[in-house]
Design goal:
155 residues
Length: 155
């Protein structure tokens, strides 16, 4: 296996692993808050579940970038890469979603916790509460777009 292929695989693994770690962390934080609300008011289950799930999208974005990368480098099809420069470009292309996914999922989880607190006190404010963690999502989407644009335009 060439050094280029190893570098590209490191990027693909980082995209899934780091974004996935961030999502697990964020969903876990929000889940703890959601469980507390549901223990007091089971009627709020659907609302707090939606807020809990929001930080999970970064893990999905990381996995998507991994699948695209693996398809581009010859693991899931396409032409196998061999040169170090190309592998380094794939590694760097995977870093936006890996790093931003890690940070944004954690912070989105914390923001979801606060929004779950809003729902606990004022269930009718769910729509407004959704906007706070959704704003954090914006940066994960931007990172996803950058990673996809980079990795699909290498060669």
């Amino acid at each position: 296996m060439s050094l280029g292929m190893v570098l590209a695989l490191v990027g693909a693994v980082a995209a899934t692993a780091l974004a996935g770690i961030g999502s697990a962390w964020g969903v876990g934080l929000a889940g703890q808050a959601a469980a507390g609300v549901v223990s007091e008011d089971p009627e709020q289950f659907a609302k707090v579940l939606i807020l809990q799930l929001l930080p999970g999208t970064q893990g999905i974005y990381g996995l998507l970038v991994t699948f695209i990368t693996l398809s581009q480098i010859g693991i899931l099809g396409g032409e196998t890469i061999t040169d170090t420069h190309t592998g380094l470009m794939y590694l760097l292309g995977c870093l936006p979603i890996a790093l931003v996914g890690l940070a944004s999922a954690y912070h989105q989880g914390r923001t979801s916790v606060a929004s779950i607190g809003i729902v606990a006190k004022k269930p009718d404010q769910f729509g407004k509460a959704m906007l706070f963690p959704a704003m954090v999502e914006t940066y994960a989407i931007l990172a996803l777009l950058v990673s996809i644009l980079v990795i699909t335009n290498i060669r």
